[in-house]
């Protein structure tokens, strides 16, 4: 039976334009503090667009950004949005040891929770880097108190993805307990799983095509899980050096993101992830109760 779902998830990975994995280099990382910061202005603009339409979303904020701009985290939360974690230093999990990963996600969660005085439930990995080789990360997420993850992209891609992964929201049974997995949206067309979740795909496809694909998915009863970045709304950001493919992906149609998002907000109804999937909130409450009662 096809059910009508009126609410979908919109999410943003809050990071600087120079922190994206496609342009990653140890040299550039050492100079992060010397680049012009644009994340605050870009996120403010985004918050304004969302407020104009009364839309609330989930913001996966990088710990590095939160540490430098705590008032931005407050402004996101005071707009009724969910604040979740994008890790601390934007290191791909595929290049981290389990211990380094644990440190990174623990630090990010602690920074965000100390700013907000409330629990952070969700995590999204830099560049969706929970893959077949880094599935160990899911049990560490549970151990560090995360309730859900939104990092396993069920697509074939050169840098990320688990093509055989379950494309629906589901429970992952890890050695340390249950983790809700909220995969970015994909839709099956002619036997192929096509990503429609946002980011570069959102800027690549003509909007009418994307809308048709999203409507198809909606018609199948799925909740959409979409993602974007504040830097995608900033066509005048300084250009970085990198491979031709990375530059094409990063800079394509940046001047169209805002207008397309306005159309998207008109056509679909969105809410934060923890509200769209109340089972996440329920699992969090149950964990809190068992911690207090020592069960
Ligand atoms: Zn990122």
Architecture blueprint of SSEs:
Blueprint: E1 8-14, H1 26-30, H2 39-53, E2 58-61, H3 63-68, H4 70-78, E3 82-85, H5 98-116, E4 122-123, H6 136-143, E5 148-149, E6 170-174, E7 177-181, E8 186-189, E9 192-195, H7 199-204, H8 207-219, E10 225-228, H9 244-251, H10 257-267, E11 270-271, H11 273-276, H12 278-293
Parallel strand pairs: 1-2, 1-10, 1-11, 2-3, 4-5, 5-7
Antiparallel strand pairs: 6-7, 8-9
Residues 13, 15, 86, 90, 126 line the site of zinc ion (ZN).
Describe the protein:
The protein contains twelve helices and eleven strands. With 295 residues, the chain is of the alpha/beta class. It has a single domain (8-20, 37-293), classed as Glycoside hydrolase/deacetylase (TIM Barrel, Alpha-Beta Barrel), CATH 3.20.20. Strands 1, 2, 3, 10 and 11 form a five-stranded parallel β-sheet that branches. A four-stranded mixed β-sheet has the order 4-5-7-6. A hairpin with a 2-residue loop joins strand 6 and strand 7 (177-181). Residues 1-5 have low confidence and may be disordered. The site of zinc ion has 5 residues, from loops.
Task: List low-pLDDT spans.
Answer: 1-5
Strand-residue proportion: 5-15%
Helices and strands: which structural class? Answer: alpha/beta
- Please indicate the count of domains: 1
Describe, in short, the structure shown.
By secondary structure, the chain is of the alpha/beta class. It contains twelve helices and eleven strands.
What are its keywords?
295 residues; alpha/beta; TIM Barrel; 4-stranded mixed beta sheet; 41% helix; disordered N terminus
């Amino acid at each position: 039976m096809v059910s009508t779902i009126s609410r979908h998830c919109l999410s943003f990975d809050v990071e600087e334009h120079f922190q994206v994995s496609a342009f990653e280099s140890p040299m550039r990382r050492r100079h992060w503090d010397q680049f012009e910061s644009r994340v605050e202005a870009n996120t403010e603009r985004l918050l304004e667009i969302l407020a104009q339409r009364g839309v609330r979303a989930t913001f996966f904020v990088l710990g590095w950004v939160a540490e430098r701009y705590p008032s931005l985290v407050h402004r996101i939360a005071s707009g009724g949005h969910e604040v979740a974690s994008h890790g601390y230093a934007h290191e791909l999990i595929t290049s981290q040891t389990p211990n380094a990963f644990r440190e990174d996600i623990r630090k990010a969660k602690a920074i965000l929770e100390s700013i907000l005085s409330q629990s952070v439930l969700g995590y999204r990995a830099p560049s969706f880097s929970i893959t077949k080789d880094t599935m160990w990360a899911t049990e560490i997420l549970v151990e560090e108190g995360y309730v859900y993850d939104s990092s396993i992209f069920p697509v074939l891609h050169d840098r990320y993805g688990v093509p055989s992964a379950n494309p629906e929201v589901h429970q992952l049974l890890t050695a340390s307990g249950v983790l809700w997995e909220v995969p970015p949206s994909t839709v099956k067309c002619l036997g192929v799983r096509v990503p429609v979740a946002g980011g570069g795909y959102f800027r690549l496809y003509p909007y009418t095509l994307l809308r048709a694909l999203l409507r198809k998915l909606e018609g199948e009863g799925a909740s959409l899980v979409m993602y974007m970045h504040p830097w995608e709304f900033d066509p005048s950001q300084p250009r970085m050096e990198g491979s031709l493919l990375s530059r094409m992906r990063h800079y394509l149609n940046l001047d169209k993101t805002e207008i397309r998002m306005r159309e998207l907000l008109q056509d679909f109804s969105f809410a934060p992830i923890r509200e769209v999937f109340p089972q996440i909130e329920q699992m969090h409450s149950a964990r809190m109760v068992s911690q207090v009662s020592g069960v």
